[in-house]
From TrEMBL:
It is found in: Membrane. InterPro entries: Cyt_P450 (IPR001128), Cyt_P450_CS (IPR017972), Cyt_P450_E_grp-I (IPR002401), Cyt_P450_sf (IPR036396). GO terms for cellular component: membrane. The keyword Ion transport does not apply. Its cofactor is heme. It is a single-pass membrane protein. Gene3D superfamilies: Cytochrome P450. Keywords: Heme, Iron, Membrane, Metal-binding, Monooxygenase, Oxidoreductase, Transmembrane, Transmembrane helix. This is Cytochrome P450. It comes from Quillaja saponaria (Soap bark tree). GO terms for biological process: brassinosteroid biosynthetic process; brassinosteroid homeostasis; sterol metabolic process.
Length: 438
C-alpha cells in the first residue's frame, strides 16, 4: 500500500471512529424520536426527558448495572431524577427490547393505571405469562415446595411427587424469562422460558384430558371450575384457554406468595419485638380454637398480624414494576407518550422512597396504624387490572404467619447476607435459617 493509501485509510479510521461512536450513542434517539418529532402529531409535542441508550440494548446494561452489580435498584431512578428532574414523573428510555416510558411518582402512576383506554396491560414476554429441632433449611426453597404443593392440589388436584418437582423447575425457567430480553435464540433465558412453557402446557393438557374422560362432571379443583364456567351466551372456555388460565394463575400466585412468606421469615428473625407481638396475638387466638383450625373471621380479627402482612409485602417489592402499552398517542402534563411504546410503572420506587414512607427500609408494622399516603402503596398494581389474587395473597400470608409464630422459633444463618434483585429481590442465601419447634 502506498503512503497515500495508508493516509486515506488512517484518516477514514480516525475520522470514522468518532462518527461511528456518535452514531451508536444517538442511534435510538435518531431512530425513534426524530420520526415522532417530524410527524409532530397529537397534542403534546415533546417526549418526556430521558435517554434511549444503545441500539437494540437501549438502557438494559444500565438497568443490569444497578440491579445486578451495584444491587441498588432505587439508584437507577434516583440517577435519572438527578439528571432530568422529576417535575413530570416520567422518563423516556429503551428497556427489554422496546422504547418505553417509565413512570415513578404517585400522580404519574395513577394517570397510567387509570387511563385504561389509552394503556393496555402488556407484559414484555406475554408468551410466557434436639428432638424438636427441624435443622437448617433454606426458607425460600422449602416455602416454594409447600406453596407448589398447595397450588398443585387446589388448582389441578396433583399430589406431591416427581411431576410437581418437574413443574417447579419449569415454572422457574418460565419466570426467569418473563422480564428477560425477548431474544429467541439458543442459550437465552427467553428461549428457555418458551420451552418450559410448552412443557408445562403439555402437563396440564394431560390433566385436562383425564378430566374430560371422566363420566360425571365434578368440581374438585380450579381446573374443573374453569372447564365448567360459561359466558352469557353459554359458551365454555376452549381447552387452550383453560390451560392458559391455569398457567397464568400459577405464575402469578406461586412465586409471589413464596417470596412474601420468605420475606416474613427474614424480617421477623430480625425484629424480635415484632415477632413477640405477633406471637402474642396468635397464641391468644389459638387458645380459643381446637386443633389447627382458624376461620376467615379469625384472620380479619388479627389486627397486628394484618399489619405485619402489609409491611412484609411493602418491603418485599415482589413486582418492581408493571407493564402497559400505549394503544394510542397520549399526553401527560404537556409530554407526549407515543402510540405503541411500553410504559413501565415503577412501583417499587414508591415503597422505598422516604418522601412516601418514613424510614422506608425499617420493618415497622406499626406504620400501618395509619393508611399509606394516597397513591404511594401500589404493591398489587392499580386500576382495573389490579392483582386478582391480592386478597388471597393477604389471607395466605396471614395464615402462614399464624402457624409460623405459634409453632416455631428460628434464627438466620447469615443475617447480613447480600441482596440480589434479579429475577427477584431476595437475600443471596435464600434466607437460610435454623428452625426448631417452640
Ligand atoms: C404478595 C403476593 C402478590 C403480589 C405482590 C402480586 C402483585 C401483582 C401485581 C403487581 C400485578 C400486576 C397488576 C397490574 O398490572 O396493574 C398482579 C397481577 C395479577 N395477579 Fe398478583 N400478586 C400476588 C399474588 C397473587 C396470587 C396469590 C394470585 C392468584 C393465585 C395472583 C393473581 C394475579 C392475576 C390473575 C393477575 C393479573 C390480573 C389482570 O391482569 O387483570 N396474584 N399481581
Amino acid at each position: 500500500m502506498t503512503m497515500m493509501g495508508l493516509g486515506v485509510w488512517l484518516g477514514l479510521g480516525l475520522g470514522g471512529l468518532p462518527l461511528l461512536l456518535w452514531l451508536l450513542w444517538w442511534w435510538n434517539e435518531l431512530w425513534y424520536v426524530i420520526p415522532l418529532k417530524l410527524k409532530c402529531s397529537g397534542t403534546g409535542t415533546k417526549l418526556p426527558p430521558g435517554n434511549m441508550g444503545l441500539p437494540f440494548l437501549g438502557e438494559t446494561l444500565t438497568f443490569l448495572w444497578y440491579f445486578k452489580f451495584l444491587r441498588r435498584p432505587e439508584a437507577f431512578i434516583n440517577a435519572k431524577r438527578r439528571k432530568y428532574g422529576d417535575e413530570v414523573g416520567l422518563f423516556k428510555t429503551h428497556l427489554f427490547g422496546t422504547p418505553s416510558i417509565i413512570s415513578f411518582l404517585p400522580s404519574a402512576n395513577k394517570f397510567v393505571f387509570q387511563s385504561e383506554d389509552d394503556f393496555m396491560l402488556k407484559w414484555p414476554n406475554v408468551e410466557l405469562v434436639g428432638n424438636s429441632s427441624l435443622g437448617k433449611i433454606k426458607a425460600y426453597v422449602e416455602i416454594k415446595k409447600a406453596t407448589l404443593e398447595n397450588i398443585g392440589k387446589l388448582f389441578v388436584s396433583l399430589e406431591p411427587g416427581h411431576l410437581l418437582n418437574d413443574m417447579d423447575e419449569l415454572f422457574r425457567g418460565m419466570v426467569n424469562g418473563i422480564r428477560a430480553y425477548p431474544l429467541n435464540v439458543p442459550g437465552t433465558a427467553y428461549r428457555h422460558a418458551l420451552q418450559c412453557r410448552k412443557r408445562l402446557e403439555a402437563i396440564f393438557r394431560v390433566e385436562l384430558e383425564k378430566k374430560k374422560s371422566r363420566n360425571e362432571v365434578q368440581t374438585i379443583d380450579l381446573m374443573d371450575g374453569l372447564m365448567q364456567i360459561k359466558d352469557e351466551e353459554g359458551n365454555k372456555l376452549s381447552d387452550q384457554e383453560v390451560v392458559d388460565n391455569i398457567v397464568s394463575l400459577v405464575v402469578a400466585g406461586y412465586e409471589s406468595t413464596s417470596l412474601a412468606s420468605m420475606w416474613a421469615i427474614y424480617y421477623l428473625a430480625k425484629s424480635a419485638d415484632v415477632l413477640r407481638k405477633l406471637r402474642e396475638e396468635n397464641m391468644a387466638i389459638s387458645k380459643n380454637n381446637i386443633g389447627d383450625h382458624i376461620s376467615s373471621e379469625d384472620v380479619s380479627g388479627l389486627k397486628y398480624t394484618n399489619k405485619v402482612v402489609e409491611e412484609t409485602i411493602r418491603m418485599a417489592n415482589i413486582a418492581p414494576f408493571v407493564f402497559r402499552q400505549a394503544t394510542k398517542e397520549a399526553e401527560y402534563k404537556g409530554y407526549k407518550i407515543p402510540k405503541d411504546w411500553k410504559l413501565l410503572v415503577w412501583i417499587r420506587y414508591l415503597h422505598t422512597n422516604p418522601e412516601n414512607f418514613e424510614d422506608p427500609m425499617c420493618f415497622n408494622p406499626d406504620r400501618w396504624n395509619e393508611p399509606a399516603k394516597v397513591g404511594t402503596y401500589q404493591v398489587f398494581g392499580g386500576g382495573s387490572r389490579i392483582c386478582a389474587g391480592n386478597m388471597l395473597a393477604r389471607i395466605q400470608l396471614a395464615l402462614f404467619l399464624h402457624h409460623l409464630s405459634i409453632g416455631y422459633k428460628w434464627e438466620l444463618v447469615n443475617p447480613d447476607a447480600e441482596m440480589i434483585y434479579l429475577p427477584h429481590q431476595k437475600p443471596v442465601d435464600g434466607v437460610e435459617a435454623v428452625f426448631s419447634k417452640l
